[in-house]
Every structure is written in C-alpha cells, then in structure tokens.
Write a structure and sequence with these properties.
Elements lengths: L24 E3 L3 E3 L2 H6 L5 E4 L9 E3 L19 E3 L4 E3 L6 E3 L22 E4 L14 E7 L4 H17 L5 E7 L2 E5 L9 E5 L6 H7 L4 H10 L24 E2 H14 L17 H12 L8 E7 L22 H5 L6 H18 L1 E8 L6 H10 L4 E4 L5 H9 L11 E10 L3 E7 L3 E2 L19 E7 L5 E7 L14 E11 L5 E13 L4 H6 L3 H18 L5 H16 L1 E3 L2 E6 L7 H10 L10 H13 L2 H8 L2 E5 L6 E2 L12 E5 L3 E6 L1 H8 L9 H19 L6 E6 L6 H4 L29 H12 L3
Parallel strand pairs: 2-23, 4-8, 9-10, 9-14, 14-15, 15-16, 29-30
Antiparallel strand pairs: 1-3, 3-21, 5-6, 6-7, 8-23, 10-11, 10-13, 11-12, 17-20, 17-22, 18-21, 19-20, 22-23, 24-25, 26-27, 26-28, 28-29
Helix pairs in contact: 2-5, 3-6, 6-8, 8-9, 9-15, 12-14, 12-16, 13-14, 13-20
Amino acid sequence: MAVDLAFSGGGGGGSSTDPDGPDGVRMTWNSWPRSKVEASKCVVPVAASVTPIRASPSLVVLPYAPLRCKPPCAAVLNPFARVDFTAKIWICPLCFSRNHFPPHYAGISETNVPGELYPQCTTVEYAPPPLDAAAPPPPPVFLFVLDTCLIEEELGYVQSAMRRAIDLLPDRALVGLITFGTQAHLYELGFADMSKIYVFRGSKEISKEQILEQLGLSVAGVRHGAVAGAPGYLKGPQANGLHPSTSVNRFLLPASDCEYTLNSLLDELQRNRWPVEPGNRDLRCTGVALSVAAGLLGACTGGTGARIIALVGGPCTVGPGLIVSNDQSEPVRSHKDLDKDAAPYFHKAVKFYDNLAKQLVNQGHVLDLFASALDQVGVAEMKVAVERTGGLVVLAESFGHPVFKDSFKRIFEDGEESLGLSFNGTLEINCSKDIKIQGIIGPCTSMEKKGALCADTIVGQGNTTSWKMCGLDRSTCLTVFFDISPSERSSQPGIPNPQLYIQFLTNYQNPEGQMRLRVTTITRAWVDGSNTEELVAGFDQETTAVVLARYISLKMEMEEAFNASRWLDRSLIRLCSQFGNYRKDDSASFTLHPNFSILPQFMFNLRRSQFVQVSSNSPDETAYFRMLLNRESITNSVVMIQPSLLSYSFNSPPAPALLDVTSISPDRILLLDAYFSVVIFHGMTIAQWRNMGYHNQPEHQAFAELLQAPHDDAQSIITDRFPVPRLVICDQHGSQARFLLAKLNPSATYNSAPHEVVPGSDVILTDDVSLQVFCEHLQRLAVQS
C-alpha cells in the first residue's frame, strides 16, 4: 500500500453533500454478510450510527397516528411494505405478516397513497393530535443547582451567567433554585413575603421519600395533585391564586412570575459561609444537592420534561458522592490511582451516582453538568448519571471562560441557534429475522425489554429492544451494534430475501411540549461472504473509525487489563490482510481499495488520541472526551479522532493541509480544528510582521486580510458547535504551539537528520513512530503468509 493512499487529506470531515443522508443513519458495512462466520471474517463489527431526531428540511410530518403491523412485530407502515391496493392489504417487510388497512384508508390506490408510502419518505414524523386539544402542553422545568464554594470572582461570573439564562428562558418554563456548599439550600420561590429556604445537611445521605416528607410533598399530597391535574402536568395553583402547601409549585414557578425574585436571590448570593481551616478544602456536598434536586422533581407528575442544571466549581468533599477528603495534602484521584485501585472513594461515588441515574431515568428527568475549575470536580464519577439521562456536559477552567459562558447561553437560545432540546424520548428498534441487537453505546438507558431480537453478546446498554432517552437533541447520536445469527428456518431451500430491513421508532416530547413519533426505515443488501467486492463497495471508513473508537473507549472502562493500542493494531492487520490486494510476503505489492485507504491513517491518529493515551489527561477530562465522542455525529467524532488542518498563505487561497509537521512554514497561518479546541498558528515570519504592526498600514491591506481570514473561519466553527471549543491563538516556537504540535504526524523528530527536516518547519520532541513507519510495518505484517 503506498503511504500516500493512507495519507490523503488533513481532515476527516464529510464531503460537502450530507454524509448522513435524509435518514441520519450511517453504517460500518452497507452490504451485510449472511452468516456469523462471514461476519467475524469482516473484523469490523456490523454497527449503525443513528441520529434519532435529526433536523432535516425534507422531513414529512403527518398529522395522524401511525398504522402498525400486528403484534409481536408492531412495525410501522413504510415505503418498503408490499401493498395490494385491490384487497386493501399490506405485507410487513420485517416479519412478512399480512395486515388489512383500516376503514379510513379505504380511498388508497396506485395514484392516491398516504405520505408514509412515498418512496422518498423512509423517514417520517407522526404528530397525532393530543387527547385533550384544549389543554396546553406541559411546560419544561429548569432546576438550577449552584455551587457557592467559589472565590468571589467566580461567584460573580456564575451570577451574571444565571441572569442571562433567566432572561432567555421562555415565560412558560418553570424554574427552581438550589444552592450548595457545606449544606444544600432549596429556595421556596412561591413564598414572596421573604426569602424562605429549606436546609439539608450535607454530610448525610437522604432518600427521595425523606426529601418529599421534609418539603411537605409527601406521597399522599402528590397523588392528590396528580389526580387533580391533567396527566403530564404539575398541579396548578388553586382558583384563588394561592399555591397549596402540598404543591410542588411552591418551589417551581413560571419564569415570568419569579424573574424578580430570582434576580434578587442572585444579588444576595454569597460565598459558602462555613469556616475552612488552612490547608483544607471547602466542604462541598454536591451529592446531597443533586439528591434534593432529583427528589423535588419526583413530586412532578409523570410526563413532565425537566432538567437539573448543575454548575459545579470543585470536588465533592462531604457526604454521598465524596471523591476526595477535605485535606488539601491528598490529591484528587488520577488514572494511575484508578489503575492501581488506590482511589478509596471512587467506586462508592460511582455507585451513588448510578442509583441517582436510575431514579432520574425512572422519573424521566435529565442531569446537565457544567463543571468549571482548574482541579477535577468528579465528572468521572458523575458520568453515569449524565450519560444515562441524556444530559449535556461542559468542562471549562473557569465560569468566566468563553467555553462555559457561550455554551451555557446556547442551551437557552431559540430560533436558529437552538439546540432543539427535547424530553422523554424512547427508542425502539425492529429488524429482519436474521438480525439481533447487541446493544447501544451512547446517551440512553436500557429499558430491559427482552425479546427474540436480543443477542447473547451485550455491548453497552443491551438486553433490550427499547431504550429510554430522558433528554435528547437534534445532534444526539447513538451507536447500535448488531449480531448476524441466521435461524435454521432461514437456511431452508428456496430463494433467500436479498434485502434486510431495520426500523427505528423514536417517541419524544419536542421543545414545544408536543409528543412526536419519528419513524426511520432503512434497507441494506445481504451479500454472500465470498463476494468481497460487494462488501468492500459498501464499507464506510469514517463510520468504522468512530465505531471502533467508541467500542475501545467502552472496553477500556469495563476491562482492567484491556490494551487498546494492541487491539487496534491486531484488528487493522487482520482487516488489511482480509481486504488488501497483495502477493504473499511481498509488502511492495500491497494496495488498498479507496474505501479502505484512509482507515490506517484514522487508526494511527486514534492510537495517539486522548481516547487511547489517557495518562496525559485527568480522569475527569477522559470522561468528558468519551461522553462527547459517544453522543456526537460521525462527522464531528472523526474530527475528534483526526483533526482537520487548513493552510493560509499569500500564494494560494485557504486549502486543506496534511496533518504533518512539514505543513508548518514561516510564511503560513495554520487553522487546526481538533473539536475540543480550535488553534490559529502563525508561522515565524507572519508573527514578526504582525508584531511590527504591518497589518495596520494601508499599503499592507492584503496582509491584514490574511491575518483575519483564519479568525473568521474559526468563528464560524465555534458558532456551530456545542460545547463551544477553546480558541487558542499562538505563534511558531511559542509555549502554546504545543496545542498544534501534539496533533501533527511526527515525520521530523529530534532524532531526524538535518536533511530530513524541511527548512523553516519544526521538529517534534517525541519517540512516537511517524505515519510512514506505521504504514510500512502494517504492510509488512498484513502480507505475511
């Protein structure tokens, strides 16, 4: 394989056309092998990346309920169904059952078909009218949980961010407030005469029942409220306008009613008053505060979409969820501590957040985490609660940093800037008979709905055909792993069905509070495993790189002795051996089909990425990177694995550059998009001209435009992305140039001979092999007999 085949292009983004297509589904293999043995020879697992409620301009919305196949199949009518218009019968493509059309479909004919049968409508959304058309949809709930163990400057940033958020909230949204330090304080916003606060001790674990009891929202009161109000609503105020003492409305008020009260409370907000001895950390009860928030939301009736938005500025040091003692001489756990089982609080904290996740999933509520601190705050422990509920996560250095400020603002914006935050989602998957589902990696929870479609091997959230997504948005992406297991019946003589079918059904409550059902039905071809050409033609190397990254991240978390680099190397060698063109034991003859040609480069960058080389990051950062990798689209995830690099110079328009140290030149500006950070890197000559102020002189207008161009492009990347990436502006040989150098292929290192280094370029101080050496080794091992 010529190295240039494996080294084409600097980035991994999709083409200008939409790579996800109208269905938002991408697969590792678009032609599927028919048997388990043939599938295992393919090396790469058969998996699909699904974006359940992706925004699409061509989406057809149907204002009626869907037509379903008879149980146990229950698939929805779709364009792949065979229809007999005279007998008014349709045959389900998944289970081959014959179904009669109901009377209201009596008018259908070849020239008059319903929207769900249009060939182009493989994805449709059903918006049936609500049962009670007069009742308004339930308002969303935002419960803010604020850390007060902060220095005055950080607390000021939190106050201003909260004021902006309150201004942006829709008037009908219900808002609540909890602050915590050594104790957790819940504010009764409905008590207007004075500030009324419920205080919970931070050192003691407290159950949901105890919380409701203390707040006067005992089960009897909640039941009474649930009967009085419509399903899915909070119990409203009584006729005289007063909030009854048993109603959760004392704590959760419409934003329009409590804006003044909230702003007054924010003005009065003070740093945690509990005395801290020298050499000690603040006593911070994050776990109790989140328990109180989840308990309070437990008093809402079912179907209420709610988010707990936690702003945390340091580690939990007291009570449940404790991750480090308050003695500052004890450092927060590192990857080395976790590997050696020397993190005494880790497993107990994870268990606490696992139970909190179960409670929130049961209630259908979301936990969003905004962590801003120079030290770790416990994202690694909280990961389970955020990911299982489909929550958002942002990790920044300070509450004053644009990464936090701009990301926090984005979740409340509407219009084109809106993230499309939705609630109460469930995903069901139905497929053809010979396919089983191993599980899903991504922001969801298994609903333990076992059935004939469940595979014996479990990957991620498995053992089910139905998953709960308490929170989801337009970019939420899930990875579904399939198992091919033909039954005895399917190997009977006769003509086998050449196509397989998979249907994804997503029920969710959209940002306006209306229930919707998104139905996506896809088809792919079965191929005989010996027909390598068809398999190769249907291979998607970008999806494969991302699926493997998600899979090894899961295995690194679950299996202590798992060696990710070795596993990736072996898989890549087997794959190249199976699908490469070569003569045995002749590495010079090795070539790869274009559909596989960039995969070695992806694997090279994945091995060097933060997902595999975890020791240079904290456990919090690793958990953060993995959560975003698991929920982002394929295009975005590829950029996390293999950043894109653009070059700007006087001689040519902006152009993609190789992700290599040779791309550095004194008279170039480079723009690196590494997803979590965007780096503008000025070559030495450019930096000197800028420092001398040439761009301010009228005769050097072209230089001013050259300096500005990467800033404009960086801004357009930052505007479209959540969480907002960190912008780094640096110069060649400057201290922050490390953000670029760490991502480049080390084709020139400190060991290189002088003639091997491009004049004016740079060298990388590393012992890592270059892509060229990696590919040479790969070729040699792949052709071995």
